[in-house]
Amino acid sequence: MSPSPLLQKIKSQISLHGPMSIARYMELCLSDPDHGYYTTRDPFGAQGDFITAPEVSQLFGELCGAWLLQRWLEDGCPKNCVIAEIGPGRGTLMRDMLRVFALRPQFMQASTLHLVETSPSLRKIQAKKLRPFSIKWHDSIHTLPDGPLYLIANELFDALPIQQFQWANNKWYERAIGLDDDGNLAFGLAAATLSPDQTGLPIGTIPHAGDILELSAASTALIRTLAERIKSDGGSALLIDYGYTTTTCGDTFQALKAHQAISPLEQPGDADLTAHVNFESLANTAKAQGIHTFGPITQAELLLGLGLLERAGQLGTGKSANEQESIRKAVERLAADNEMGTLFKALAISQNPKCPPAF
User: Fold this and answer.
1) DSSP strand E in the chain: where?
2) Residue partners of 339: CB distance under 8 A and separation at least 6
3) Structure pTM?
4) End-to-end CA distance of the chain
5) How many CB atoms lie within 10 A of CB 135?
6) Which residues contact 317 (CB under 8 A, 6 or more apart)?
7) Burial (CB count <10 Å: 0-12, 13-18, 19+), residue 179
8) What angle do CA 334, 337, 342 make, to 5 degrees?
């Protein structure tokens, strides 16, 4: 079987320029215009490679929508607002939030709707799901219009490119992807090193041979831009993803294909690539811009604090036993410790110093 066009492209670049950083590899696999994972398909749901919280139940989107709406009310109901989602998937989360926003027509009248999405195929799905709402699409948050920003990003940061560094010979060497003797993709160490003061590890941390540290310049740049924007124009952002709350060593670079874990090097462009999110780094970067941060807390804490059980009870009233059981399973999937409840975290950033709902 001949290699895929993207695999050929990656091997060609490595042959010409030497080992490739993991960040560059992720960019090509996920966002290549012709063969990238997100630019060429719909990866969500039971027929895709993974299921996100909005696809589990409408409860998730409704509660997130209530959070943003409450934040707008606490801000004094400002005009000329920007409601935005980065990485909106199929548009399911925004659709469910809009159902809640409709309960306060003043919020919709004071706002415009925006989706930051680079995938042409996903934009088509979003447009169909979100009819008849007037929505503007963007390739970047930099083109969002001015005004108080009420933004959500669910499972976005885990897909942003990372670098990995491995401790060897008393130095942090960048981990890269090259070709082995048989011409297959393989991990190795590049010449680039990282100084100890750039790691973000707690003072006094003593690394051991083989330890791996993950950094994400893309995540840092995005949270900095969001924080600067909200500090300037007002508003709040709710960021939900799977990750950890303290900078630590560990290899979390992973690939999913048809809901199964595979090697990140196995099917470039045909599998989802992600890494766990460093919420401590996100919060510290936002704070450095002079913005208020809240959390991180677990997804279970967020959803239960927003009334997950009460809303599930309302949704199940008058429904059949099978429908009620389906709702119960969805609640468990979203909030149980052995499901998404503790692995997923939520971080809020805001111009408003008042602690937001559930935090």
Assistant:
1) 20-21, 81-86, 111-116, 135-138, 149-154, 163-168, 171-179, 185-194, 212-215, 235-244, 254-257, 260-262, 272-274, 277-278, 292-298, 344-350
2) 332, 333
3) 0.94
4) 52
5) 19
6) none
7) middle
8) 75
Show the domain range for 135. Answer: 1-359
Do 93 and 54 meet the contact criterion of CB atoms below 8 Å apart?
A: yes
**Cβ pair 282, 223 in contact under 8 A:** yes
Helix (H) or strand (E) holding 329, with range, is helix 321-335
Distance CA 165, CA 211 (A): 8
Q: What is the 3-state secondary structure (H, E, C) of 148-196?
A: CEEEEEECCHHHCCCEEEEEECCEEEEEEEEECCCCCEEEEEEEEEECH
pLDDT in tens, the chain (359 residues): 567 899 999 999 999 999 999 999 999 999 888 888 887 766 665 555 678 999 999 999 999 999 999 999 999 999 999 999 999 999 999 999 999 999 999 999 999 999 999 988 899 999 999 999 999 999 999 999 999 999 999 999 999 999 999 999 999 999 999 999 999 999 999 998 999 889 999 988 999 999 999 999 999 999 999 999 999 999 999 999 999 999 999 999 999 888 788 999 999 988 999 999 999 999 999 999 999 999 999 999 999 999 999 999 999 999 999 999 999 999 999 999 999 999 999 999 999 999 999 99
What distances in angstroms separate CA 226 from CA 61, 181, 219, 231, 289, one per listed residue?
21, 44, 11, 8, 10
Give burial (CB, 10 Å; 0-12/13-18/19+) of 219: buried
* Residue whose entry in the numeric block shows the structure tokens 């070709």: 179
Two tokens at 184?
A: 């297959």
CA separation for the pair 62, 323 (Å, rounded): 18
The set of residues, in sequence order, having a beta carbon less than 8 Å from that of 254 and lying 6+ positions away, is: 261, 264, 273, 274, 275
How many domains would you assign to the chain? 1
Q: Which residues contact 320 (CB under 8 A, 6 or more apart)?
A: none
**List of residues 6+ apart from 352 with CB closer than 8 A:** 71, 74, 75, 234, 236, 292
CATH code, domain with 71: 3.40.50.12710
Contact at 8 Å (CB) between 335 and 342? no
